[in-house]
Specification:
The complex is a heterodimer of chains A (299) and B (520).
Chain A: H1 20-35, E1 41-42, H2 56-65, E2 71-76, H3 83-95, E3 100-101, E4 110-114, E5 127-131, H4 145-153, H5 158-171, E6 182-184, E7 189-190, H6 200-203, E8 209-214, E9 219-223, E10 229-231, E11 264-268, E12 274-278, H7 281-296
Parallel strand pairs in A: 2-3, 2-4, 4-5, 5-8
Antiparallel strand pairs in A: 1-9, 6-7, 6-10, 8-9, 11-12
Chain B: E1 3-14, E2 40-51, E3 55-60, H1 66-73, E4 81-88, E5 91-94, H2 100-109, E6 111-114, H3 118-121, H4 128-138, H5 144-157, H6 174-186, E7 192-196, H7 204-221, E8 224-229, H8 232-238, E9 241-246, E10 249-255, H9 256-261, E11 284-297, E12 302-315, E13 319-323, H10 330-337, E14 345-351, E15 357-359, H11 365-374, E16 376-379, H12 391-401, H13 406-419, H14 436-448, E17 454-458, H15 466-481, E18 485-489, H16 493-499, E19 502-505, H17 512-519
Parallel strand pairs in B: 3-8, 3-9, 6-7, 7-8, 13-18, 13-19, 16-17, 17-18
Antiparallel strand pairs in B: 1-2, 1-4, 4-5, 9-10, 11-12, 11-14, 14-15
Classes of the chains: A alpha/beta (299), B alpha/beta (520).
């Protein structure tokens, strides 16, 4: 790789904000992460012009993968227009001339996301980058990183499974809602960033490459395309995704588009009544567009 | 009979070591501290064989290196030299030349360990069932129902109430913790089990059942075991062959009964019965009336009774002993008096130096702290102290709290430690590095040093070898002669008979439902 400077006259920065050496280092870490699915590769996480915890890990991945012909989509909790997503998108637009951004999942080639994977199945042409606050699923049972590394190496997740066991004993079900520990390719267990349980099955045999970047914790890991990703569970207490049924046992629908097979956000009004809407705003728009022409047809 | 373990020339030296270490220590030199470099020769040249389904005893005084042997074989420590070969079906493992990952695998899948201190063997923050589940999950049993069934079976085998399978071990009594630990060690049916002073700290009725259980398991599963103990009764009951250790050397090896009946070297032994003395009349220092204690498990909204309607008195210069099976709430009574537990019912009347009577159940926190400083001492089952604090300072601490100058406090601590035959070389070291027996002596010295008026003793001689226990018993007799009132729990009925002026038998509390009915 040519690590020479590509600084342009009107731009004080390299393409993609990071210098070539930084991009080279992050890309090497990405390649290693892909070669060992689920393994947390340490890397030299840089200071970015925003605070740690605002997605600096994901942003470094994005900026080291990005090229001038990329179409980028940024999601925050499923939404394209929340503050975090808007600011990250503007930062990418400002520092990467020529890159186009979009909110449509179908059009993008590179997705940076916080807490969600789009409802629409991703394709082999797309890469999704997830921002990760806590990369290590074992941190809840073992405080020492040295010992955690050994446990990962030997695929010894018994103490994590005991956590699940205790959950079933106490609450009759596994109560982990986000960051559900998931075993990748039969060995390493990852913390799939705080995506809801709903999104965990999407990692399994996904056509797109999924990358995870933790800025503060300085770790990169990956789920390569068409890799087995199985959430930890017991053979007689299988993994379940969120259940959106109401008291009568009917599946709740999105109040905006009427969709009955997406992950729903709950909105509580001042009066205490609850409404539900698709968490993925682009999906919701797509559903609405499909519904509208139907309604427009004369009877 | 197939060999399962072959240990040859096992040695462990703590410290730098020098060429004279081995020659200048041992039973002949009457020390295990090298006078040239100050290293501790914990064990030297220990060799033995263990066969399938056999129980081998390792016995000796405290500090003789018994536990070190087991810790090395269980990979808790690395030996200085020596080799051990483990025969696993048709495979052979040279234990100390394996890499760390293989060692951990053997430890998790082929070996079991029951520690003297349940803290080491159990995770106190997950339930008893969860502790057992951990071992099962390690060997890839992934069926929740099956895991639970198996955990329950194991706990039933070790006589832990099934209703408590989901409680945290920290809410269990010492005996129950030990039984959960045994259940955990047996979960994966390992072919080799190490037991380090397992029955120490348990009352005799439970001890007998645990020993029964160990024998039963040995017969049923053909588990080979290495049993470390200072208790000659345990050795005699469990083992066919034994080795005797002193200052880190094997001084005797052979058939257990032969070692005990016809030893080639002197073995410290002796429990003897003194005549009961007449009781003198003096006003009681402590009067407990209708004491009761139950625990509220907030998370599960459950009530667990631990003591119920206990009444007795303790007089100056006399020792009152509490007896009863595990779970009768013996420790709970002591802790209630010391106010570690807040009593749920009853009165605890304490007469202080001025002759004032005070109900400890109602006393203010300041009053309790003042009493703890000046008048009431408590020797717990296990020593809790700051790590890295020198033994001398650990023992002197209660005196410093009374305002005694540091130098004088240290001198008095030194006097007491030498009376308890704790070697002077250990005084500047932290008790964290001591063996169980040595640690217990430090614990006792700390309780005795401030000469409290009322001393609470929770199994003080439990983890001591007979010789040290004897010296502790003499100390207790000395304190009694000086007029200290004592309330104690002993695991050995002989000790109780010998020391107690009054014996109070506790019975396990009735079930919650009966208690609630009583209240209503």
């Amino acid at each position: 790789m040519n690590a020479m400077s590509h600084t342009q006259a009107d731009n004080a920065y390299n393409f993609g904000f990071l210098d070539e050496y930084a991009k080279k280092e992050v890309r090497r870490a990405i390649l290693k992460a892909i070669a060992i699915p689920g393994y947390q590769v340490p890397y030299a996480s840089r200071e970015m012009p925003m605070g740690r915890g605002f997605g600096t890990g994901g942003l470094q991945l994005t900026l080291s993968l990005i090229g001038p012909d990329e179409v980028v989509k940024v999601i925050d909790q499923g939404s394209d227009d929340s503050v975090n997503a808007v600011n990250l998108r503007r930062f990418i637009e400002m520092t990467c001339p020529g890159v186009s951004t979009t909110t449509a999942t179908t059009e993008c080639t590179l997705i940076q996301s916080r807490h969600r994977i789009p409802e629409l199945p991703l394709t082999a042409q797309q890469i999704i980058v997830l921002q990760v606050p806590y990369p290590d699923p074992l941190v809840v049972v073992e405080p020492s990183e040295d010992k955690r590394k050994i446990m990962h190496g030997e695929a010894d997740y018994s103490r994590l499974l005991v956590k699940l066991y205790e959950d079933i004993v106490k609450f009759d079900e596994i109560t982990i809602s986000h960051r559900y520990p998931t075993r990748i390719n039969g060995h390493y267990v990852i913390d799939p960033s705080p995506i809801p349980r709903w999104d965990v099955p999407k990692l399994n045999d996904s056509a797109a490459l999924t990358l995870f970047g933790a800025g503060r914790e300085k770790k990169i890991y990956a789920v390569p395309p068409h890799t087995i990703a199985e959430p930890l569970a017991f053979s007689d207490v299988p993994f379940r995704v969120e259940d959106f049924r109401d008291e009568q046992g009917r599946r709740r629908a999105c109040a905006r588009c009427g969709c009955v097979d997406s992950f729903l956000d709950e909105f509580v009004a001042d009066s205490g009544s609850k409404t539900y809407q698709c968490s993925d705003s682009d999906w919701c728009d797509m559903q609405l567009q499909q519904v509208k022409p139907l309604q427009g047809k004369p009877a | 009979m197939n060999k399962i373990l072959e240990v040859r020339g096992l040695s462990k030296i703590y410290g730098p070591g020098c060429p004279y270490c081995v020659d200048s220590t041992g039973p002949e030199a009457d020390t295990n501290l090298c006078p040239h470099c100050g290293s501790v020769v914990a064990i030297h040249d220990v060799s033995f064989d263990l066969f399938e389904g056999e129980i081998l005893g390792v016995m000796g005084e405290s500090g003789s290196g018994k536990s070190t042997v087991v810790k090395n074989l269980y990979f808790d420590q690395a030996p200085s030299s020596g080799e051990a070969i483990f025969f696993d079906n048709d495979k052979q493992h040279d234990l100390f030349s394996l890499n760390a990952a293989r060692q951990r695998w053997l430890r998790n899948h082929r070996f079991g360990m029951v520690y003297q201190n349940p803290n080491l063997g159990l995770n106190f923050n997950i339930s008893a069932g969860g502790n057992i589940a951990e071992r099962l999950l390690m060997s890839d049993l992934m069926d929740y129902g099956a895991i639970r069934e198996r955990a329950k079976t194991l706990l039933a085998r070790t006589e832990v109430l099934l209703s408590r399978v989901d409680d945290l071990p920290k809410h269990f009594s010492g005996g129950m913790q030990q039984r959960v630990q045994i259940a955990k060690a047996l979960a994966t049916q390992p072919p080799l089990l190490f037991l380090d002073e397992v029955t120490t700290g348990l009352d005799l009725s439970v001890q007998a059942r645990i020993l029964d259980l160990i024998l039963e398991i040995q017969q049923e599963l053909k588990t080979a075991m290495v049993v470390v103990t200072h208790d000659l009764g345990v050795i005699r009951l469990l083992t066919g062959r034994a080795i005797v250790m002193k200052y880190g050397r094997v001084i005797e090896t052979g058939l257990t009964d032969q070692i005990l009946e016809d030893p080639s070297t002197p073995i410290p032994s002796g429990w003897w019965l003194p005549p009961c003395e007449e009781r003198s009349m003096n006003p009681p220092i402590l009067q407990v009336e209708g004491y009761g204690k139950h625990f509220q498990l907030h998370e599960q909204n459950k009530l667990i009774p631990s003591s119920h309607n206990v009444s007795f008195t303790v007089r100056a210069g006399e020792l009152t002993a509490l007896i009863g099976p595990t779970g009768a709430g013996k420790s709970s009574v002591l802790k209630g008096i010391y106010r570690t537990y807040l009593p749920s019912a009853g009165r605890i009347l304490y007469r202080d130096t001025m002759g004032h009577e005070l109900d400890l159940a109602l006393a203010s926190e300041h009053q309790i702290l003042a009493l703890r400083r000046r008048e009431i001492g408590f020797v717990t089952q296990f020593l809790h102290c700051l790590p890295r604090q020198a033994t001398l300072d650990v023992v002197a601490q209660p005196l410093l709290g009374l305002g005694v100058p540091r130098e004088e406090a240290r001198q008095r601590a030194a006097g007491l430690l030498s009376a308890m035959s704790l070697p002077e070389r250990l005084w500047s070291v932290s008790p964290a590095t001591f063996s169980g027996g040595e640690r217990q002596r430090v614990n006792l010295a700390r309780g005795f040093i401030a000469r409290p008026r009322l001393l609470l003793l929770d199994e003080p001689t439990a983890s001591l070898d007979p010789a040290t226990a004897e010296c502790v018993i003499r100390l207790i007799e000395g304190l009694k002669a000086e007029g200290t009132a004592m309330l104690a729990i002993f695991h050995h009925p002989e000790t109780t008979r010998r020391l107690a002026d009054e014996v109070v038998e506790l019975t396990p509390p009735p079930a919650v439902e009966t208690l609630l009915k009583e209240i209503a």
